[in-house]
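Subject line: Sequence and fold of a protein, written as structure tokens
Area: Proteins and the way their chains fold up in space.
Start of record: The labelled sequence and token lines come straight after this line.
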Amino acid sequence: MGNALRFLYGKCCKPLTEEDSGSLGPHGVSAATVGVSALAQDLYHFEITSQVPEGLTRHVTSSKKAQANWYRKLSEAWREAKPPPKTAEEAARLVIQTLSRHKKADVEGLLAFYGLPLPHTLIPVSTAEPTTLPAGVKFEMQTLPVDARAIPDGDTITVYVSAAEPRESACVPGDVQMAAVRRSKARAERNYEQADALHQKIINAGYRVINLPNNEEVLARKYRIRLRGIDAPESSMPYGKEAQNELIKIVQGKCLRVLVYGEDRYGRCVADLYCNGIFVQEVMLKKGCAWHYSAYDQRTELAKWEKEARAKRVGLWAASNPEEPWEWRKDRREGR
């Protein structure tokens, strides 16, 4: 158990930089890292010593015995999270969900102790992940962990699906399978030049050998995904980088559930994305990172989420008159 938490702590924590040291929370780390690194460290420490951190009592009202009960529950929830929380928002949601039956003041005190967002500051997510395939879905995919480099903007993402998945296994071209076998043999013989050439052949065919965190290599098929029903600012537009970074924050390192409804003219799968049970498009709209793309999607809930973000002037709606990305693209096509 301790080894598992040591692994999670190593995955989630990184040393403070000199730049971080200017804004310390009550736990003694920067506002950017307090939520994840300090909590992960304390959970690991609790597994070894059964001791809750010093100073927590000043932030909560319950006894040390009750606090120990919280940390037991949080340790279990942290281990079961796949992957474990990497952002302050993810860590806050895990704490709030795990301790939902405990006193509100204690939960908020624990969050404050770690500098994590309080419940009222988090974007409420209302859409549950569907238990059956909705009407119109062509097929479903479960992806491998998403690489941040595969997210060029706030509404497009490249994902990889293991070729061992039932839907994929029967479709892998014979030459790709052969190249993967030969590549493994070449690497075993330390013939890296040949291995790289074979991998390039695999990539050219729309596949890639993915290295997983456990050092396992998996042959996977590439899919380009266009998030259905939203249109985010292009990366070179105002708020384009912020929208891209928000999507990265939601999906980086996560395995996604992808419900594909069709294909656009650029060969991308038009899909709804779910990440750890959260509807990705809902978060992007509620945080003001995208427009509802009403020309192609008439779902009333998407229009409602955009309207709510507009009213709160969050994200791109803080600007008085943000330019719609479809108009921006049209102007570029027409040379204006």
Q: What stands out?
A: Confidence is low (pLDDT under 50) at residues 1-30. The first strand starts at residue 139 and ends at 142. Strands lie at 139-142, 156-162, 207-211, 217-227, 230-231, 256-263, 269-275, 278-279, 291-292. Residues 74 and 253 are 21 Å apart (CA to CA).
